Amino acid sequence: MAQPSMFKEQSADVVIRSSDGVDFWLHKVILSLASPIFKDMFSLPRSQDADRETVEVTEIAKTMEDLLRFCYPMRDPELLPLNRLSNVLGAAKKYEIEFVVTGLKTRLRSFVSSDAMRVYCIAYKYEDAELAQAAAEHLMMRNLSLYDFNSNPPPEFSQLPITALAKLIAYRERCTIVATAALMDDEWMITGFDKHDRLRLSIKRKVIAGPTTWVWLSCSSCNEGTVDISVRFPGHSKRYSIRPRQWWQSYRDAVVRELSLFPGPLSSVPSHEPLIRSAVAGAQRCFSCGHKAAAELSEYAEGVGKRIRESVLKVKIDFPFKAADRRGTKKHGCKGPGLSHRRIADHPRSLRLVEHPVTDPLSEVFTT
Ligand SMILES: [Zn+2]
C-alpha cells in the first residue's frame, strides 16, 4: 500500500487510512491536541492485538496530507488552489480543528476579489455566514449576471441546496429596493449637500429656491415634471410640494429602471454615462438649466451613488446556518459531525467516520 513519504515515522502509534487507500503513520498525541474528535476517539478502549490502531477516514489522501501538514510541526502547504482549500476546510471542520479552520478561512478570503462566486459557494457549503456575506457583497460590486454560469458553473453548485443561489438572488433584489429608496429620498437631496441652498418657505407659504439650490428645483423656465417632491420645513407640521423640471424627472426615472437591470454595482448607476448624457441633453434646451445642469447633475449623481453604496452595505443575507455557527464555536470534546461513538465501539480497531449530508430548509429561501 502506498505511503506518503512525509508521514512514515516509526514512532507512530496510529495509522490513518484515506479513502483511496493511502496510510499515514501518525501520533495520537498530536492528533488529540489538534482535534477533539480524534481525542474522543483515542480515549475509547481498543483491543491490544495490533501495534498501531488503524482509522479509516472518508477523505482522499491529498486532503489528509494537506490537513496534517497544518497540524504537524512542518511548513504549511503554500498557495493551495480553491479545490484543495475547499476540501481541506471541509476536513478541518469535520474534525473540529479550529485553528486550521480559522487559517483556511483567511486564505479563502484572499480569493474573494478574484473568484467571489466560488468563495460564496464554499463559504455556504461550510456554513460561514460572514465569509459568504463578504463574497456576496463583492458579487454585487462588479459586472456579473447571476445567470451567467450555464456553460461553466462552479463545481459547488451541484453540492449546494437551491437555497444558496436563491439567497443570492433575493439579496440582489433587496439591495435594489434599498438603493431605490436611497435615490428617492427627496428630503436628503434637499438637505444633504451643504453647497446647495435648501428650499425655503416664503411669507405667502410658497416654496422658494436660493441662488445655489439644485437647478432642477430652482428653474421656472422649462417644462416641469409630473411628480411633486414633498418638503418639510422646521416648525411646520404640514408638508409642502415643489415640482422638479421634466428633464430631471426623466433622469431619475431612468436611474430607477436601471437599478433593476444594471449588471454592475448599484452605486454607479446614477453616474452611468448614458443616463447623465441624456439628461444633460434635455437640460440644454432650457437657458436657465443649460449652463448648470452638467456640473450639478454630476455632483448629485456622485453623492447619491455614495449614499446607495452605504445603504446597500447594510443589507445582510439571512443565512440558514447562523445559529449552527454559534453552536459550533462551543463544541469541545463532543460528538462531532460524522463521528458515531456507537460505531467506534463496534469497530474499535478500524474506525470509519461517516459524513452526514447538510440540508437546508426551503422555507428560509426568501427571508433575505
Ligand atoms: Zn430649466
From TrEMBL:
PROSITE patterns: BTB. InterPro entries: BTB/POZ_dom, SKP1/BTB/POZ_sf. It comes from the Eukaryota. Residues 12-72 form the BTB domain. This is BTB domain-containing protein.
